[in-house]
Write a structure and sequence with these properties.
The chain is an alpha/beta fold and 461 residues long. The chain has 17 helices and 15 strands. The chain is 43% helix and 15% strand. It has a 4-stranded parallel beta sheet with strand order 4-3-9-10, sandwiched between helices. The longest helix is centred in the N-terminal third of the chain and has 21 residues. The protein is elongated, with a radius of gyration of 26 Å. It binds adenosine monophosphate and zinc ion (ZN). The site of zinc ion has 4 residues, from helix 7.
Length: 461
């Protein structure tokens, strides 16, 4: 069987991956908090772990992999959004989840096998918190339940830091009900205006970290293979997940391999609303701030070009390069992607098995392209989530052929009649609609480009 090498954050080493059960390889990835459209950074872990999911399915078989990614649908940011907009919490979270799935689907990401919502697992979280209290790992104070960090000797092992170093470096909330500033909230009281559930500590709601421990246990068991997320989650979120799970299930391993993607920056800076370089995946897909829409496949390509353990600098220049690069695979023969079979050619598989070395896999794809090895290239591209759809003349586009012919003959007539102003207008309009025009002598030839936009063409009719 093919061996996959994975870098484990916990051991800081790349090692051959050995699943606990080859018939059920289990992976958990932390998902989004659902109160707003996913920003571009949120798409990175989705796309990175989608490639890993596809690789695992290829190696172990599609029915032998279980991928769980949660939705955090109870959180103070969601409560704040509901309060300021006057909308129901459930309406906000339902809508955001739908958006998320549409946007990530547009990036070619497969849906995980399970996408649990935190609010569906409150009783399981309560059971876990009760066990932590019974074991001396948590305490109740003023309606809050806190995890006693000093009770878990291994705390900090994932990020390789001691508790004291972490206190020095972190902005931990000092609260009167905490025994120690590092202790974190498992449960907190809810007033009548906030979402709350009954519990032995009164009506309240869970802290963030406990949901992943509870849902991973329910859906994947006390030991599973891979846990993923962005490296901003390593501390405190993942340290806390480990502490909770290890203290309730001391015989389990929780996650055996921890994988973290690096962050995405925009034009060399951290994405932030105040710097004006913050945008959502939907902004890119639809076009924003005067920029043309970016096809989902191009966004996917751009996100995958950089190895997941390196930072991505997302730039306008890089994006247009990525678009040209991906188009080069489809230009030779736009029909070559029309098949449906998926297979990963050996050189690409070898690269992916080397800790998801997608840049090396892309180099191998270029070699196949240059040697016109379509037999391997197109099934491999599909297996990686690229189907070339955006680059192919679309059926609706084809039905506009007569209209384009009509405008193009008007253009040629205008030139013949020396009405150059009209001819230039028509040409500019066609180019705006994503039609390439090439005039030889008196006759103009045209073709649809991947940027064809029917609505812009219709404006000309
Ligand atoms: P959040 O909704 O903030 O909890 O984030 C959801 C996921 O997106 C987590 O796995 C984060 O690590 C990841 N993430 C957030 N910002 C970025 C970024 N700038 N680059 C890469 N991943 C990010
Ligand atoms: Zn989590």
């Amino acid at each position: 069987m093919t061996t996959i090498q994975l870098h484990n954050t916990k051991t800081r080493r790349k090692k051959p991956f050995e699943p606990l059960d080859e018939n059920d390889v289990r992976m958990y990835v932390c998902g989004p908090t659902v109160y707003d459209r996913a920003h571009l950074g949120n798409a990175r872990p989705v796309v990175v772990f989608d490639v890993l999911y596809r690789l695992l399915r290829h190696v172990y078989g599609p029915d032998h992999v279980t991928y769980v990614r949660n939705f955090t649908d109870v959180d103070d940011k969601i409560n704040a959004r509901a309060a300021e907009s006057g909308r129901e919490i459930g309406a906000i979270t339902d809508e955001t989840i739908e958006w998320f799935l549409q946007d990530m689907g547009a990036l070619g990401a497969l849906e995980p096998n399970a996408m649990p919502r935190a609010t569906g697992y409150i009783p399981q979280m309560v059971v876990m918190i009760e066990a932590l209290i019974a074991g001396g790992h948590a305490y109740e104070k003023e309606g809050h339940v806190l995890f006693r960090v000093r009770s878990y000797k291994e705390y900090g092992k994932l990020s390789g830091r001691s508790v004291d170093d972490m206190i020095a470096g972190a902005r931990v909330e000092v609260a009167p009900f905490k025994e120690d500033p590092m202790d974190f909230v498992l449960w907190k009281p809810s007033g009548a205006d906030l979402p709350g559930w009954p519990s032995p500590w009164g009506r309240g709601r869970p802290g963030w970290h406990i949901e992943c421990s509870a849902m991973a246990y329910e859906l994947l068991g006390e030991s599973f293979d891979i846990h993923g997320g962005g490296n901003d989650l390593m501390f405190p979120h993942h340290e806390n997940e480990i502490a909770q799970s290890a203290c309730v299930h001391p015989k389990g391993d929780f996650a055996r391999v921890w994988m973290h993607n690096e962050m995405l920056q925009v034009e060399g800076k951290k994405m932030s609303k105040s710097l004006g370089n913050f945008f959502t995946v939907r902004d890119l897909l639809d076009g924003h701030d005067g920029q043309p829409p970016v096809p989902g496949e191009v966004i996917r390509w751009m996100l995958l070009k950089t190895h997941y353990r390196r930072p991505i600098d997302w730039t306008k220049h890089g994006l247009s390069e990525a678009k040209r690069e991906l188009a080069s695979f489809y230009e030779i023969d736009p029909e070559f992607m029309t098949g449906t079979d998926e297979r990963i050619a050996k050189p690409v598989l070898d690269a992916l098995c080397d800790d998801l070395n997608v840049p090396k896999a892309i180099a191998a794809l270029h070699e196949m392209r240059q040697s016109l090895n379509f037999e391997d290239l197109s099934p491999t591209m599909r297996a990686l989530g690229f189907n070339g759809e955006w680059a192919m003349p679309k059926q609706p586009a084809l039905s506009y052929g007569t209209s384009v012919n009509f405008i193009v003959s008007d253009l040629d007539d205008s030139r013949k009649n020396k009405d150059y102003e009209r001819a230039d207008q028509l040409r500019a309009g066609l180019v705006r609609a994503g039609i390439e025009i090439n005039t030889v002598g008196d006759v103009s030839h045209w073709k649809f480009t991947p940027d064809f936009d029917a609505s812009k063409l219709e404006e000309m009719l």
